Description:
- There is one protein chain.
- The radius of gyration is 13 Å and the shape is globular.
- It is 28% helix and 18% strand.
- It contains four helices and six strands.
- The chain has one domain (2-115): Rossmann fold.
- With 116 residues, the chain is α/β, with parallel strands linked by helices.
- Helix 1 packs parallel to helix 2 (47-53).
Amino acid sequence: MIIGTTKELKNHEYRVGLIPDNVSAFVAKGHKVLVETQAGLGAGFLDQDYIDAGAEIVATPAEVFAQCDMVVKVKEPEECEYKYLRKNQILFTYLHLAPNPKLAKALLDSGCKAVA
């Protein structure tokens, strides 16, 4: 499986979906891991930390979503990310859909498997 994480887009959100220890664990089990450049910077992790753990650094969130079977985030996708969601892709993130029907519709329309 190809697993990835992107830089969080919400204001004042500094956490990251995967830390280097997570990457090491996934890689040890035979998975490939992609990390958007600077995704971990706000949490104190450099791209080199992810590379040392076995991840491949990619330039854009589009690359992560296009190549990954599962995308791990902290917060729900922002509207500009809806277009990246695709059928049968696993999205593992925090989801609070009640106040955001547009997100709920985007998830349903994409056919992704959203796990909160």
